[in-house]
Amino acid sequence: MRKITSHIVGRYAIFALALALIAVSINLFYAPHGVAAGGATGIAVLGEVAFGWPVALTTLAINILMLVAAVIFLDKATTGRILLGSFALPLMLGIIPQMKVVNDRLLAVIVGSAIFAVGVALLYRIDASSGGTTVPPLIFKKYFNLKTSVGLLTVDLIVSLGNIFVSGTEAFILAVFSIVITSIIMNYIETGLDRKKTVFVMSNQALPEIKRVVNEQLPHGLTVLPVTGGFSAESREMLMIVVEQADYQKLTKQILTIDPDAFITVADVAAVHGGIF
Q1: Residue 173 in contact with residue 252, Cβ under 8 Å?
Q2: Counted domains in the chain
Q3: Boundaries of each DUF2179 domain copy (predicted)?
């Protein structure tokens, strides 16, 4: 992914794919069921349900207003970053037809949230934006020092509240549910899909044997760290082993076979760069 995003053609390809995914989530899953899960597209869905306004044109109008706000209150670099997406997303919404592909409303929200999360995560990966209601949180951050994540969540919740007046309480609950699902999936994607575990090992007697077994029999990254006991002030060695998820149980069993009293702590690792992997 890093090689693709570093090439200009690859970046534009990912940009187009990301916007297409967002448009698919709106036109095939959210809009047909009248669920507005935040953002400019959420406002557009509310406008379509209440007044019959086309989602693409409403999104375009909102994005233009947000661009004007960005020009006034934000710097040129930020405005330039959201400029292309502000026009490209409404174009995608206009190209991709709106249709109901799933009859069950809850299933539609779950699938739509997953697709939407992948699209937004891809935009973040290439430092791009679809514009719209991403602008107000940036303004709040600049002038009121409010975290952008908090500002974005606040805006999305305000938009979601519109469901109560347009589509009913059930749509509002589904919209909030969608925001939660999207956040979880985006967090998982952004922190890495190639997750591993870091295993820290200390042993009173068998540390040399554990090192030998890890080096010779197990295909893992091994680092020896000098540590000092907080109570005893005694200098010792601790092993740090980065291990694939599938090999974690095998590794711990191997260590405990050598030393049943070995002190082992484990931490999840979102991504590993470099090394032997």
Answers
A1: no
A2: 2
A3: 220-274
Percent of the chain exceeding pLDDT 70 equals: 92
What is the amino acid identity at position 19? Answer: L
Q: Rounded to the nearest 10 degrees, how much is the dihedral formed by the CA atoms of 218, 222, 224, 229?
A: -80
Three-class DSSP category at 46: helix
Q: Quick check: is 274 in a domain?
A: no
**What Rg do the C-alpha atoms of the chain give, in angstroms?**
25
Cα–Cα distance between 172 and 160 in angstroms, integer?
6
Same domain? For 94 and 225 the reply is no
**pLDDT higher for 276 or 86?**
86
The SS3 of residue 220 is coil
Q: What is the pLDDT, as a whole number, of residue 272?
A: 67
- 21 and 156 belong to one structural domain: yes
Q: What is the DSSP letter of 129?
A: -
Which pLDDT tens digit goes with each residue over 228-240?
887 878 888 999 9
Residues 179 and 205 in one domain: no
Among 175, 190, 205, where does a domain finish?
190
* Single-letter code of the amino acid located at 33: H
pTM (2 d.p.): 0.76
At 31 the pLDDT is 97
